[in-house]
Amino acid sequence: MTGPVRTLLLWCPDWPTNAVAAEHGLTSDTPIALIDRGEVFACSVTARADGVRRGLRVREAQSPRCTDLVALPYDPVLDHRAFEPVIAAVEQIVPGVQLSRPGTCVMRARGPSRYYGGEQQAAEALLDTLAGLGVRAQVGIADGPFAAGQAAKLRSSSPADAIRIVPAGRSPEFLAPFPVELLDRPDLATLLRRLGIATLGNFAALEPMQVRDRFGPDGVLAHRLASGFDPSDVDARVPPADHSSVLEFEPALDRVDQIAFAFRTAAEEFVARLQSSSLVATAIRIEVSTESGESRSRTWLHPRWFTAGDVLDRVRWQVQGAGLAESGLNSAISKLRVEPESVDPAGSHEAGLYGGATDEHIHSGLSRVQSMVGHTGVLTARISGGRQPSSRRVLVPWGDLPPGGEASVRASRELPWPGRLPGPPPATVFPERQRVAVAAAGGREVVVDDRGELSDVPVQFTPPGRKPGPVAAWAGPWPVTERWWESGGTRLNRFQFVDDAGGAWLLVLDDSGWWAEARYD
Amino acid sequence: MSLSVASARGFADAPVASAASQVAELQDRIRGMQRTRIDSHGLPTSPGVAELLPGGVLRAGAAYSVQESTSLALALLAGPSAAGHWCGVVGLPALGVEAAAAAGVDLDRLVLVPQPGEQWLQVTAALADVVTVVLARPPASLSAAEVARLASRLRQRGSTLVALGDWPQSEATLRVSDDRWMGLGDGHGYLAARRVTVSVTGRTLTGKPRRKQLWLPDSEQAIRPAGLAGVPVALPDRRREAAVS
What we know:
CATH topology of the largest domain in chain A: Alpha-Beta Plaits
Number of domains of chain B: 3
Helix content of chain A: 25-40%
Distance between the termini of chain B: 51 Å
CATH architecture of the largest domain in chain A: 2-Layer Sandwich
Keywords (chain A): DNA damage
Oligomer: heterodimer
Family (chain A): Belongs to the DNA polymerase type-Y family.
Largest sheet of chain B: 9 strands, mixed
Order of helices and strands of chain B: HHEHEEHEHEHEHEEEEEH
Structural class of chain B: alpha/beta
Number of helices of chain A: 16
Protein name (chain A): DNA polymerase Y family protein
Strand content of chain B: 15-25%
Organism (chain A): Mycetocola manganoxydans
Pfam family, one (chain A): IMS
Radius of gyration of chain A: 32 Å
CATH class of the largest domain in chain A: Alpha Beta
CATH superfamily of the largest domain in chain B: P-loop containing nucleotide triphosphate hydrolases
Number of strands of chain A: 21
CATH architecture of the largest domain in chain B: 3-Layer(aba) Sandwich
C-alpha cells in the first residue's frame, strides 16, 4: 500500500465574508455575519472579535455581542463565483487543482515543488500570485489533505509565516497534539472525549482492529486521518471552458448607443463561441463596471435562447436601467462582462425543417416589441392569491419568472383566502385607486365606526371624474384586516355599488376616505 | 367557412326571413366572393358572441369597435384564445386579469403591453404580426393615414383588432346599452350576474342596429345569450354571503 500523497493545501481565511464584502462594497473591518437558515454560517474577523461564533442565532449574535453587525444571507453561488478567478489564477501556475470548497483548494505538492525548486518556493510562488489578486491566503504542505489542512489553518501571526510545511513522514507527530474535534465528526468526538481520548495522538494509538469493531468503517477512516495516513488523493478538476465575454472601454463611455454599438461584435462572438461548443445560453449574467469602481450585475432569462441581438438588447436595457432601481449608475461605464449562466445543448433547441416550434414566431415578435418599449413593457399575467383584485394580479415581464417561481404563485392561488368577494371578477382593476365620494341623505360623508357599523345609508355616489348621482344598489361593508401586526398592514371596508347608469363599482373605505378599487365594466 | 354557413342559412330560411335580413345575407355572400385573400376566414367565437357579429364570426383581418365595456371586449377574445390562438392587449394598464381568465381567455397565451406610450401604432402593428387578436385602446390623436396603415397591416397579417373605443372603418361597433346587475340589493347581496343589451351597428348591417340580450356573465360566470324574459336568476345564497361579511 502506498503512503499518503504529499499535498499542498491553499486556504483563504474568511472567504465567504470577504467575498460578500467585495460584492457589496463593504470595508474589510465591517462586522459581517452570513446567515444560513437562521444561524450564523460565517463571520468576519471583526465580528469574531466581538464574540460572534458560527451556529449562533442572528438575535444572539446581534443584541449582546455586536450591535452594528451586518447580517446578510449566505449565498453559495456568490461564494463559488467569487472564488472562480482565484482558482483560475492558481491553475495558471499549478495544474491539477481540486476545489474542496470556496476558499480552499488542494493540489499535489510533488510537481510544483520540483518545478519551483522546493516546497517552500512553490508555496511562495502561489502566495505571490494570489497577492497580485489582492487575496490573503495560507498554505500548508503535509502528507495527505487532512494534515495539510490542519497545517494551513494554524494561526499565523504575520504574513511571513503563512506557509507551514510538515516534513515528509512527520505528519503523525504533527497531528498528535490536536483535539479530536478536528475530525469533523461531532458524535465520534463526544464519544472519544467521554472515553478519555482527547487528542488525535491518543486516538491514533488505538488498535485499528479494535477501532473497526467499536466505531465501524467511518471510525476506521477517522482513525487513519488521525494517524496521518490520509487515504484520499487529490482529484483535480477539469477547468471549465470560459465562455464569458469582456469588453473594456478606454476612455469610459456614458452613452447607451455608444456602448451598444461597441458591444455588437462582442455579442456576436459570445454567441458564436457558445455555438462552436454546440451550446446555447438560456440565461446570461451581465456585469457593468463603472469608472468609479462600482459594479452592478443582473441575470437575464430568455424564453428560448439568446441570439446576439437578444444579448445586445439586455445590455442596453441594463445600462439604461429600464425599470430597475438598483441599476442606477452614476458614472461612465468602463467595463462590460457577459457570461452564460445556464446553457443547453444546441441540439435540443434546433429549429425544425418546416419552421420551428409553434410559438417561435411569437417569441421573435414579442422580442421586437420588447426592444421598442423595454424589457418590463411586455408582460404576461398570472393569477395569484389575495383578497383584493389588485393583489391577485401578478404581471411578469416576458421571459422572466414570477417572483418566487411559478409554483409559489400557484400555491398562493390555491390557498382558501377567506373573505374574498364572490361573483364575477371586475374587468377593470385600477393600477392606482381613484378618489370617489359617497354621501348620505343630508350630504354628509358615510363612514364606518370602530364597531364596523355604517353611519348612514348611502344615497349619493360620485364616480371618478363624473357628477354625483343616486345609488341604485349597494352592499357592504365587508371588512378586511390584513397584516394588522405590522405598519404596512391594511385595514379597510369594501363595498359594491351600482350607480344610476348601471355601472358597478368595487369601492373601499379606509382612514383616508372612499376610493374606487375596480370597476365591473 | 363563413360563406358556407351564411349561404346554408340564407337558403334554408329564405321563405321566412324578412327582406332586410335576406339583403344582409346576400351582401355577406358578395363580400365573401370579393375577398382578395384566399385564407381570409372567420375566427372561432364563443356562442354568446357569435350571434352579435355580422356573419356570425370574428373576421380575421378586420377591426371591431367595442364601446366602454371591457368585459364585452374580453368576451370577443375568449373564442380565439380557447381555440389556441394568442391574444395581445395594448394600452390597458387597468385590465382585470382575473376577469379575462373568467371570460375564457387563456392567460398562457395572453401578452400585455400596458404602456405603449408614443409608440402605440408601432407596438400594435408589431403585436398584430404575431398574435391573432389584439385588444387595444386607440389614442385620441390617431390620424386617418395611421388608421389606414394599421388596417392594411391587419388585412395582410390576417389578425383581428378589437378597439376599445371608436375605430373608423370597423366591421361592427358593439355597444352595451341597458346594463342590469342582479344580486345586489339595497344594502345586501353581492354582484352576481349581469344582463346587458348589446346593440351592434356595422358597415354590412343595414337598417336599425341589431340588438341582442346577453348574460355578461350569468351567475355561473359564463357568457351566454339571454333567452326571452323570465329566465330565472340565481340569487346569491345566504351561505356565501355570510362568508363575505
